[in-house]
Design a protein that fits this description.
This protein is 23% helix and 25% strand. The protein is α/β, with parallel strands linked by helices. The strands form four sheets. Strands 7-6-5-2-1-16 form a six-stranded mixed β-sheet. A six-stranded mixed β-sheet has the order 8-9-10-11-14-15, covered by helices on one side. The longest helix is centred in the first third of the chain and has 17 residues.
């Protein structure tokens, strides 16, 4: 018989205290405790939860010109980012270990002078199990985030199942998805910043294609979640709401839409919009095997004699020193 194991996941739809690492870590600790008390085995936070997704700001850069204010805000962004290892990672590890849960959180990782959009998976014992850097930042994200490498394109075997992750629009990269499918992903985590209606259809497609559970987790954030002096939301800035009016503190910037999908593409929960909420779902792990009766993208429905994929898993290191 297949496993009767049931895994409870928690998708935390919440905003960070943007550009404030310490307060964002406090919020992560509090929400982890809440989800763990509710019985969650795996707690998933959105993309860039520590400590900001810089909504609507291109850091005062245009083609051929960069302004001093944008450089100052980049430095502030860098200050609120996380090095690995660091005391901030220790805080995440302590939360996981003290509650005996798995935590995945989207962080802005700093390595030298470059920032990366990273998903960090921490085990029940507090150890870092997976560090995945977003392979391709989207649009203007490329100005402030570097590109990840294949060394983070992994799937981790745990006692609750095989866990893998892709961040936001990486999920539209078929080759990246195939890399996770080939490694047997069962619980596919999709932290994102996409609140468009088409996103929910994409998540259902991926769950059905990969024959895996998909946890789609987005933040829900308002103007008030950012510093008062954050340029796009100040009265004198040119940025405006879609109707042309100025931004107000209670205006919603990102509407959320977090939900969980089963391995046949059927939602286990409905998307949650316009509020902070922890979305819970029970994953019956036997359904992964059951779903593969008639389709397995890297097995019974694969044609390796026709199609092949090569994944370079070397780190993206520019300089290698030898002796």
């Amino acid at each position: 018989m297949t496993s009767s194991r049931v895994v409870k996941v928690a998708a935390v739809q919440a905003a960070p205290v943007s550009f404030d690492l310490e307060k964002s870590l406090q919020k992560l600790t509090r929400l982890t405790a809440e989800a763990a008390t509710a019985g969650a085995d795996l707690i998933v936070f959105p993309e860039a939860f520590l400590s900001a997704y810089p909504w609507r700001y291109a850091f005062d850069a245009t083609i051929g010109a960069r302004e001093p204010r944008g450089r100052e805000w980049y430095a502030r962004y860098h200050d609120s980012a996380i090095s690995i290892p660091s005391p901030a990672v220790d805080t995440i590890s302590k939360a996981a270990k003290s509650h005996n849960v798995y935590i995945q959180v989207g962080i802005i990782e700093k390595d030298g002078g470059t920032l990366y959009c990273t998903a960090l998976l921490v085990g029940k014992d507090g150890s870092v199990l997976l560090k995945h850097r977003k392979l391709i930042p989207t649009a203007v994200e490329r100005l402030v985030w570097g590109r990840g490498a294949g060394d983070g394109l992994g799937v981790v075997q745990t006692d609750i199942g095989k866990i893998g992750t892709l961040i936001c629009w990486e999920n539209y990269m078929p080759a990246a998805r195939m890399a996770l499918y080939q490694q047997g992903v069962e619980i596919y985590l999709a932290p994102n910043a996409d609140d468009l209606p088409s996103w929910t259809a994409s998540m259902q497609h991926i769950a059905k294609e990969g024959r895996c559970f998909v946890v789609s987790v987005n933040s829900m954030c308002k103007v008030s979640d950012f510093p008062k002096e954050y340029p796009p939301f100040t009265p004198e800035h040119h940025d405006r709401k879609p109707d042309g009016s100025a931004w107000e503190p209670d205006d919603i910037v990102n509407h959320g839409g977090s939900f969980v999908v089963g391995p046949l593409g059927v939602p286990l929960t409905e998307p949650v919009w316009d509020k902070e909420e922890i979305v819970y779902a029970d994953l019956k792990m036997s359904e992964v095997t059951e779903s593969r009766l008639d389709f397995d993208p890297v097995g019974s429905y694969a044609r390796p004699d026709v199609f092949t994929l090569t994944v370079n898993t070397r780190p993206g290191t520019n300089v290698n020193f030898t002796s």
